[in-house]
Design a protein that fits this description.
Elements lengths: L30 H27 L4 H20 L5 H5 L2 E5 L8 H17 L3 H12 L6 H6 L1 E5 L1
Antiparallel strand pairs: 1-2
Helix pairs in contact: 1-2, 2-4
Length: about 160
């Protein structure tokens, strides 16, 4: 390991080369807890947001665009300004961190995590999403494709 970097003392390398003799630097959040956080975000944020959009747009065709834009901004910006949490993640005691230094994500991480990931899911007609779910469920570090793209990990706190 290159001694010029100040990685955690668990021989962690952001290139994802785990030294299996050492414990993982964080407690990774698995599929079900992350799925629960997404469901909570949908119930607590998504449903009221849809109702608000319906009221503000009067049920016009702009309602779904308005809801989608606000949902995108919520998923993009809240983790940046709230130390890696969304409302659902906070309730489930999990958060997004940058792998390289265990700090909350920056806007660039979240753009890659959300925008680039959405493009990949679209180009693969959703197959990447299924692969991602399996990765989160089966990998020891619980990182999915979108985590690797953004250099992030979801961990328990």
């Amino acid at each position: 390991m290159n001694e010029n970097h100040s990685y955690p003392s668990t021989n962690f390398n952001p290139g994802n080369n785990w030294d299996h003799q050492q414990p993982l630097p964080n407690d990774p959040a698995g599929f079900w807890i992350r799925f629960g956080a997404i469901l909570l975000d949908g119930l607590i944020i998504g449903i009221p947001l849809s109702v608000l959009s319906l009221i503000l747009t009067g049920g016009s065709s702009g309602e779904s665009v308005f809801t989608n834009v606000l949902s995108f901004l919520y998923a993009l910006l809240l983790p940046v300004f709230w130390n890696g949490y969304t409302v659902g993640k906070k309730i489930c005691s999990i958060r997004i961190i940058r792998v390289i230094n265990n700090e909350p994500p920056h806007i660039g991480n979240m753009l890659m995590r959300n925008v680039i990931w959405a493009v990949i899911v679209g180009v693969t007609f959703g197959i990447a999403l299924i692969v991602d779910w399996f990765m989160v469920g089966l990998r020891e570090d619980k990182r999915g494709i979108h985590d690797f793209i953004a250099g992030t990990q979801v961990v328990r706190v």
